[in-house]
Amino acid sequence: MAEISFVSEEVNGIVKDTLDTMLGQVTYQQSKMTQLTESVIDEVLKRLVALKKPYKYLVSCVLMQKMGAGLHSSAAEMWDTTTDGYAHVRWDNKTMFCFLTVFGVSI
């Protein structure tokens, strides 16, 4: 079986489209963020799985109210650089930021 490389640009497109659709008109409300974060992750995973590529996906999503605060985040990984990869999207609207990362690990 030929190896398939993780295509970050393709994943970025899926993530951006999902965020535009699901968050574009949303106003940040603390009480709704847990459910919204879970819904965003579920939709991204659903769309990635629909690609039918031989990957396990790990998705991390941070929703943060725009209040002028700083945020630092990092991740480390060790994998096969010829097949595995990640995509990271920073997205925002008038009231919130979203930082979504997808790791794709070949199976």
Automatic annotation (TrEMBL):
Pfam families: Tctex-1 (PF03645)
Gene3D superfamilies per the UniProt record, alphabetical: Tctex-1
A molecular-function term among this protein's GO annotations: dynein intermediate chain binding
Superkingdom: Eukaryota
CDD domains (UniProt xref): DLC-like_DYNLT1_DYNLT3
GO annotation terms (biological process): microtubule-based movement
Cellular component terms per the entry's GO annotation: cytoplasm; cytoplasmic dynein complex
Bilayer-spanning residue ranges: none
Name under which the protein is recorded: Tctex-1 family protein
Organism, scientific name: Giardia intestinalis (strain ATCC 50803 / WB clone C6) (Giardia lamblia)
